[in-house]
Amino acid sequence: MDGYLVIPDAISSDNANGLLNEAHNLMKRVSEGGEGIIRHDISGDGENVPSPIGRILATFEPGGSNPVLRVPCLKKINGLSLGDKSASNPFERRIARLGCGVHKMRPFLTLTHSAFHRSIVRSLGYDDARITQSQLIAKLAGIGGEIVPHQDGCVSFTDPPSALTFWYALEDTTLDNGCLCVAPGSHLTEPIRQRLIKQENGRPKFENLLTPLWAKDVEGPHVALPQKEYEYRALEVKKGTLVLFHGNLMHKSGTNMSEKNRISYNFNIIEGSGDCSDNSYLKPADGKYERL
User: Fold this and answer.
1) What is the pLDDT of residues 198-229, one digit of tens each?
2) Interatomic CA distance for residues 100 and 103, integer angstroms
3) Which of 57, 175, 180, 194 has minimal Cβ neighbours within 10 Å of its Cβ?
4) 3-state secondary structure at position 202
5) Closest to 8 measured CA to CA, from 129, 232, 173
6) Torsion region of 116: left, alpha or beta (phi above 0 gives left; psi -120 to 50 gives alpha)
7) How far, CA to CA in Å, does 45 sit from each of 41, 68, 168, 280?
8) Distance separating alpha carbons of residues 185 and 159, to the nearest angstrom
9) Are 176 and 257 in contact (CB under 8 A)?
10) pLDDT tens digits along 273-288
11) Alpha-carbon distance 98 to 231, whole Å?
């Protein structure tokens, strides 16, 4: 039980290219600003932090100011393109990720809500799969930063843990361009120790759990490994590959020092019947996550 599954050619090359083009279009629109784009500077301690729910927030690689841009109205973007290193707008070259409502835009909406995905969650025993968030991870050539080891179940949190990640490679991934790396079996030896909450000022904060939450299939006695002892496996995969992994699985990715981008799309689901506190960072105001 490694805690992950690699499915090559889960989507066709043409489908992956269409999703990739739309990702470029959205980055282009965000970087150029204009109607529907709002810029926030969250480098200080002030309030007025935009909520990620139902919007697309763009965050940037370090360097200079550290703003967040949001797209409050999700629309299809047409007729735009993006060159790998030819972008004249510095914001365009520094985009790190776009989230958390990418799945509300076509063609990501169509992909996310596919019968293929519903069949997967049914086969895994989900009765009421709900989408918590979706993201585009840019990892642009020569600038894409490291993502440190973490568990998606800390953000897509339920008690008991039920998070599942669908991760799509929209471009070929290698160690050089910062491919996804996983710690096989770590979902069985590393419990969820924190959860992401929304503070009164709107800012996210990780809160320590009084009792760590183990994957439901793990029987006691529970013995966790020190994180430094985990060995990571690099998943060098072709575009169109789907990687499914457990929300407790430790994973990471390195910096992109290559000449090639490494853009990926991912979304998380949880079991709708799982306990999820109202102050969870991603929980909608009406308390209901979108059904897959």
Assistant:
1) 888 777 889 999 999 888 765 555 556 666 67
2) 8
3) 175
4) coil
5) 173
6) alpha
7) 10, 14, 35, 20
8) 20
9) yes
10) 887 788 888 888 777 8
11) 29
